[in-house]
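Minutes, project check-in
Item: structure for the 475-residue chain
Input as provided by the requester:
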Amino acid sequence: MLMSCSKGKHEEFGRNLAKAFKSRQYKNFDTEAYNEVFKAELKKLKPELHDPNWITKIYNEENNDNGLTLVGAFLINGKLDNLHQNLLNAKYHGLNPEFFHSDKITELLNTVKTKKFKKVEESYPYLAQLELYSADGLINYANILKYGAVNPKTVLSSYYVSVERPDFIDAEKTLDLLDLDKFLEDLQPKNGYYQRLSNLLINDDKPETVQKLSSEDKQKIYLSMERLRWPVKEYKGKYLLVNIPEFTLRLIDNNTTDLQMKVCVGEAGGHETPILSGMIDRMQVNPVWNIPESIASTEIISSLRKDSYYLEAKNMVAYKNGELVNSPTVDWNSADVSQYSFKQNPGADNSLGQIKFIFQNPYAIYLHDTPAQAMFKQDMRAVSHGCVRVQQPMQLQEFLLNDKSKSEEIVKETEAAANGAKAEARWVKIKDPIPVFISYYTAWSDDAGNLVSSKDVYGYDKLLMPKFKAYMATL
């Protein structure tokens, strides 16, 4: 269990307080008397604390010597002031500083530093409150910066990124031995795009800034920063980022965009592209499209009932019990479509285009080329069944393979197929698999630090807002 400073150290603390804040009464500081007041304040303040169970575990009511864990270690040396400033700066994380008791800590720090108490006992409630509000503020600030304020699983059923939400500060650690300044520095999110969004808020707060952020843009930034705190795996090194609301794919290396392209994503209303991540480890050149049952049972069967030669016209085939069937001879009006599977053979008219990019996930989501290039001219590109269509597949395969000869071979192969040569499906392994993150940010930043604002195409901001509002900075 957490142990605090010794009694002798606390009495020395009183003498040091008197010297630091020029208040003689602090010299008469009595540890036992203070801790009795501390226990009373703990009981009184519990309803105001965000994590009373954690606080109770740390400040075990049976332990009469831990009521100055933070104040005893960090008040005189100024490190508690640094914590206070970090809590005030929570607004640059899109968070309300008052959620972390910053306003109360401001008043209490001023009181214990400047008030000339007639009796030392008058200082005990202020010091106890400073201790409790600081501890509760610290643990919640740490947990929110590390994991986010809201559990994404409670917002979206289609959030498929792993989530871990333990207490970031372990209750077994001794807080008065914590290197508080280093802990607070290390706690700051390292993601370059998070930092750029934070800088937008910092610049907006400067009096000399002429063009201020709108309330709508601020809200988008706040919600996007919250989402950036969610992933267990950080965005770092070389990776792909699909931003659904922006309809954009970025090929990123060390927070710099190497290539950016348009994408089409799942249509709202039942075909939304899920939020997930994985490692792209292979691609299929001249791919076969294994048509999902959801599409076969609706679009394919409907077309077949109108035209029994539909499959031939679309370079598709049907199988029953693993055997190829002659489509025009089947009575599709009475056929049980669940007994059939459908594929589209490789070719220039394949719905997956000339290449698809695979990463392991249980939802059969992947990135792929498309023959429907006209869609990329539209502003609204939520048009697919859920997979992500990419505008520049050849540039993407070059980025992934990082092998000029292999990339050139793929280009020649696909160009020949486009010109009428027989197309054969072929798998290509990616030597160094690359992370891909399919994400949802209505606010983003370009490499120059400018805000990129997008519409809430799936309405996910509206879903998050009610749960995040209690933590959110002012607009």
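Outcome recorded: The mean pLDDT is 91.
No further action items on this chain.
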